[in-house]
Structures are given as C-alpha cells and as structure tokens.
Write a structure and sequence with these properties.
It comes from Loktanella salsilacus. The protein is α+β, with helices and mostly antiparallel strands and 360 residues long. The protein has 2 domains: 237 residues, 3-Layer(aba) Sandwich (Rossmann fold); 107 residues, Nucleic acid-binding proteins (OB fold (Dihydrolipoamide Acetyltransferase, E2P)). 23% of the residues lie in helices and 34% in strands. The protein has a 6-stranded mixed beta sheet with strand order 6-7-8-3-9-10, with helices on both faces. Helix 2 runs parallel beside helix 4 and helix 3 crosses helix 4. The protein is globular and about 75 Å long. The protein starts with a strand and ends in a 7-residue tail after the last strand.
Length: 360
C-alpha cells in the first residue's frame, strides 16, 4: 500500500502545448491517502484514463511528478511500481486454466505453493469461479474472462495500489453488483489503496470512500458521496451526480436575495457574486405550490418511478425536475415552485461560492 502524491501534474498529447486547452489533463496537485478507495468519475474524454495511466506508469506526464510514499516514480516503468491493474477488456492467458491464470502473478514472485493455493481459492470464491478453476480460459464468456482479470488483480496482497479502468463494462448487471460488493470487502479486509475509473455514478458512489469528479480534463471536486450530493463544487458535479441531476436557475444576486425572473428568493447568507450567477437546487428540495408566492411553473408530466414521483415542470421555457413522495398528492392547480431551506447552492461562472464570512 502507498500514499500516492500527484505534484504539479499535467499532460498534453500535443508536442508543444501552448495554452490550457492544449492539455488533456489540467494541472493537478493531490495526495491519495494510503489505504483509501477512490473513484475517478466523469464522462468519456474527461481525462480519467489519462490520469490512471500516468499513475500506473503506462504514460509519462508532460509536467509534474508522481510519488509513491514520497519516492519519485514519474519515469519508473509499471513493473517497478508494484501495482496491479485491471483494464476495461479482459486480459487472460487462454491456454491456461482459471487456476493457473489466478496463480500466475504469485508464481512469478516465487511464493510458497500452499500460500498460492490459499489465495487462489479465496479469490475464486470472491469471483464465483470455484467450479471453473480447472477449466481452460479459452471458450469462456467475456464476463467470465473479466472476472479472471479482476481476480488476478486482487490475488496479490502486497501491492502499492490496485487500479481499475472501467473493469465492469462487459459484466452482466447482477454480477456487477456482486463484484462491487466483493471489491468493497477486499478493500475493507486488506486496506489496499484502490483507484477505480468509471463513467457510472452508481459504481463510483457505491465503491469509493472519495469520488474524484473530472470534467474537461480537470478535477472539479473530490469528496464523499454525501458532499458531492449536498454541496456540488461545480455545476457539472450537480448535473452529473444524482438522478435527476441538480436544477440550475439563472439568477441575479444582490446580497442575501436572488432574483429568478420576476420572483425573489431569500438566501441563507449574503453573497458577493459576479459573472454568470445561478442557483443550484436538487429536485429533492423543490416544493410545489399554488397561489402567488414563488417562481411560476407549469407541470408538463409526472413520472411514477415506484418509490417516488418525478415531476417535470416548465419554468421560463426550461425543464425543471422535482421529486415528490410516492403518496404525495400533486394538486391540479400547481403553478409555483419554492425551495426548501438549506437546499440552495449559489454558483458564479459554474463554481460554487459561499456566503461572505462563511467557511467553504
């Protein structure tokens, strides 16, 4: 296990980058705490795999350093970093049995035969392949082969870090849940530093201690699932985390009052906001009402998703989502929305700001 330090790290695939937009990975400084589980989350092309490949040694960054427990490994090859990496598509030895595939990393390190057998048996149980241990990998399904790849990554207990690059893409939905649970248990039992790349927020939020949200080559927030939900640091985080995502309202902000269209909204503090200013409100904090108080809104449709209802509204020509309890009566004359106390985030040029005098 290792503390991983990213020092002034950035990368461009261009030979002579001149400006920030030339970088696929914008400048980043961060410590990945020894023994924690991280998820790199973002849409395709945001820089997740670039960052993972720099940590693993498959890519040398354009600038900055990577340190494992304070040792500079920026130019060290992957083999010298003592890591295990599982890729999006399975990498297995078809001519070997499942048992031989799982044992391969341990045999290379000349581990005791009895210990190899113990670890292989344990990991086979984790990935539900005990009955197939003596089957050749050739002919197995893609998801079975990916389970072997996952198992081979998990079989070593002495690695500095376990890196996963969208490893569940080819796994069926039920097995995804099982393997995520097993990865969580492995992390709990052995305390490996784990970094897991995904575009799936459910995978990220159920797997990680801390989620690293990336957008346009930049890390826009690192936090617990609760922090990302309650206090999105960037409008992208609010949009990407949650289903439905956070609503955004263009607003003029004057101290502790925001103006949305012709309606006024009382804020929980005084803000000094310039540039493009918006209010971010999760659907769970939208309240439906009728009368003259609040922001004018028109219900367009109601979607019953079982445990709650999603109400789609038109507010000033823009679709807004609200979440209502399954048994909640939605009045036919609903024509306004208000916001629950504490449910408003204020943004200036897409970044969350705090009231004057308040801690971030």
């Amino acid at each position: 296990m290792a503390k991983i330090t990213l020092d002034n790290l950035a990368h461009s695939y261009l030979p002579n980058p001149q400006q920030e937009s030339d970088f696929a990975l914008k400048e980043l400084n961060h410590d990945w705490v020894d023994g924690e589980a991280y998820a790199l989350l973002g849409s395709s092309g945001c820089g997740k795999s670039t960052l993972l490949n720099i940590i693993s040694g498959l890519l040398i960054p354009s600038q900055g350093r990577v340190l494992f427990d304070g040792k500079d490994v920026t130019t060290a090859p992957t083999a010298d970093r003592n890591i295990a990496q599982v890729f999006q598509f399975p990498v297995v030895y078809d001519t070997m049995s499942v048992r031989e595939n799982l044992a391969f990393p341990l045999k290379n390190r000349k581990m005791d035969t009895a210990e190899i057998k113990r670890r292989v048996q344990k990991v086979a149980a984790m990935i539900d392949m005990e009955a197939q241990l003596d089957h050749k990998a050739r002919g197995l399904t893609a998801d079975a082969k990916q389970k072997i790849s996952l198992g081979r990554g998990m079989v070593r207990e002495d690695v500095n870090a376990l890196l996963f690059d969208e490893p569940l893409t080819v796994i069926d939905p039920h097995m995804k849940w099982e393997l995520r649970t097993q990865l969580k248990k492995l992390h709990h039992d052995f305390g490996h530093t784990m970094i897991y790349v995904t575009h799936d927020q459910t995978e990220a939020l159920t797997f990680a201690d801390k989620v690293v949200v990336m957008y346009d080559g930049r890390v826009v927030q690192i936090g617990t699932p609760q922090e990302l939900f309650e206090r999105p640091a960037h409008t992208f985080v609010g949009y990407f985390i949650g289903s439905p995502g956070m609503n955004l309202f263009d607003a003029q902000i004057d101290g502790n009052v925001a103006r949305v269209g012709d309606a006024t909204v009382q804020l929980d503090g005084s803000y000094a906001a310039t540039g493009k200013t918006q209010l971010g409100v999760r659907p769970e904090f939208i309240r439906l009402s009728s009368g003259s108080d609040g922001i004018p809104a028109t219900i367009r449709r109601i979607e019953d998703v079982g445990r709650h209802k999603i109400v789609r509204l038109d507010v000033g020509g823009k679709e807004i989502s609200a979440v209502a309890a399954e048994g909640e009566n939605i009045a036919a004359d609903t024509n306004r929305i208000t916001f629950a106390p504490g449910g408003i985030n204020v943004y200036a040029d897409d970044w969350r700001i705090t009231p004057q005098g308040a801690a971030a």
